[in-house]
Design brief:
The chain has 287 residues and is of the alpha+beta class. It is built from 7 helices and 8 strands; from the N terminus they run ααααααββββββββα. It is 48% helix and 24% strand. The longest helix is centred in the C-terminal third of the chain and has 27 residues.
Length: 287
């Protein structure tokens, strides 16, 4: 176990050195298809380590619980720190954990260990309930970690400012660069409901969306009730507060995450594995 903690500590130190030397992880370098190439390369490395495990002690060690448990502890600690610190897109070190080298490297390390454990179990696979539970949960976790991490490079989060009666197809990214979108949004009417004291109770926008495929969609975007079209989620973000209920302007947040279906697939596999473990595990104990 001490070896596992030593390896994890070494990875964190290496991450800190990278953070000092090259700055935080530049996710734009991993946009499609680079992230797919990295994923395939990771799988090839996992396969190679598995094939050489009998010849190299370090490779054999990576598929043991003595390596897995310390790695998970480091990951949990870093994740808790992320939850306790304010995260910003352009933050530094602990304020942008998704781009913090120690955080990223620890999760890459966990992915490596998970992949090796899964392959080892598959090579001795027998069609039993316990094996199915194990593969579902661990493969699901592997899919979630890898696709959520690599998919971060392809996720777009944009702000669009629209004026009543004027179609808009341009939005701003976090660096305030103008991005032209494959869809246009026209604000037809801004909607606001207020309390007796005049404070906002609800605000929404009646809009028409036009896509490149000439699809037209008239709908209402409400706070916390996004509209989804062609892979984009459109959220009501703001309005012209100086005009209040008479605002002729609406601000939308548009989010696109093409890797999200893969992440959900992994989550559903984990849930199914946990459910099977609960159902069949309970039956085994009763028997």
């Amino acid at each position: 176990m001490r070896q596992g903690f030593a390896i994890g500590a070494g990875i964190i130190v290496a991450g800190l050195l990278l953070e000092l030397c090259v700055g935080k992880v530049f996710w734009d370098a991993f946009t499609w298809p680079a992230n797919l190439i990295v994923l395939l390369l990771l799988m090839a490395i996992i396969t190679g380590i598995h094939l050489l495990r009998k010849k190299v002690y370090a490779f054999r060690f990576l598929s043991t619980y003595q390596a897995a448990i310390p790695a998970m502890i480091y990951a949990v600690v870093l994740t808790v720190i992320m939850g306790l610190t304010r995260q910003t897109v352009n933050g530094q070190w602990l304020n942008d954990m998704l781009s913090f080298w120690p955080f990223v490297l620890i999760y890459v390390y966990i992915s490596l260990i998970l992949g090796l454990i899964i392959i080892r179990r598959l090579t001795h696979f027998r069609f039993t309930t316990s094996n199915i539970q194990f593969i579902l949960f661990h493969l699901g976790l592997f899919i979630v970690i890898t696709t959520a991490t690599l998919g971060n490079a392809d996720m777009q989060r944009l702000k669009m400012i629209t004026s009543e009666g004027e179609p808009e197809w341009r939005a701003l990214d976090a660096q305030h660069q103008v991005i032209e979108l494959p869809l246009a949004i026209e604000l037809e009417k801004f909607i606001m409901e207020t309390y007796d004291d005049g404070s906002p109770k609800r605000f929404a926008s009646q809009i028409e969306i036009l896509t490149q495929t000439n699809k037209r969609l008239r709908t209402i975007v409400d706070v916390n009730k996004p509209v989804q079209v062609d892979g984009w989620k459109i959220y009501q973000y703001g309005y012209d507060q100086s005009m209040g209920a008479m605002s002729k302007t609406s601000i939308f947040e548009l989010v696109r995450d093409p890797w999200l279906p893969a992440v959900y697939t992994g989550i559903y596999m984990m849930l199914l594995g946990a459910l099977c473990m609960f159902i069949f595990g309970t039956k085994t104990k009763k028997a």
